[in-house]
Fold:
Amino acid sequence: MSIEIDILNGDASWPIAEPLHQAVWDPHIVEKLPWGHVKWANADLRVLIETPEDGLVCHVGIYFRTISWNGRKVHVGGIGGVCTREDCRGRGYATMAIEAAVHTMRANEAVRFAILFCEPHNFEFYQARNWHPFTGEVYCEQPEGRIRFDYMAPFVFDVVRAPRQGTIDLCGLPW
Ligand SMILES: CC(C)(COP(=O)(O)OP(=O)(O)OC[C@H]1O[C@@H](n2cnc3c(N)ncnc32)[C@H](O)[C@@H]1OP(=O)(O)O)[C@@H](O)C(=O)NCCC(=O)NCCS
Structure:
């Protein structure tokens, strides 16, 4: 089976990714979740995995941001919107797409580490892929102002070396 992995501009490829997002995160269900009202950043790039049989099967958004950690500026990569079509899961697509995202971040020499945010049911999935819990505090922007972001748990990846604790300010919307 042949698969195609593309890394495309985030805004330009949103129309391709949107139907998969809607299928995985039904807006009617999401709006009732504790994080349903959160305003998220738009991805800078997107990893899209397509197969001839199934079309788009997997998506990972990539974000680049200068954040602050304990008051010091640091350039990081983020991943978000990780999703695989329900009937295509367990085939390694998300693992491949996350690897492609991390590879893309490594190509940007300024990136020190990567961050993602996830819910408890995905902790094991990311820990098995070398992401580590960040046990400090995370702040971000929302339309109402700066807030502590604790709707989801932060996990970090050592592109070079990621901190495990301290205070992170995303200096913008979360992803
Ligand atoms: C999480 C998700 C992206 C995984 O996609 P996938 O393409 O099935 O992932 P892969 O096939 O690369 O990996 C699946 C493997 O991880 C395991 N796995 C999948 N979800 C897991 C979880 N939540 N916890 C632990 N292990 C998990 C599977 O058992 C499988 O293991 P194996 O490789 O030993 O067989 C997919 O289940 C999904 O879209 N979930 C809904 C959206 C979501 O929660 N996204 C994450 C947002 S942070």
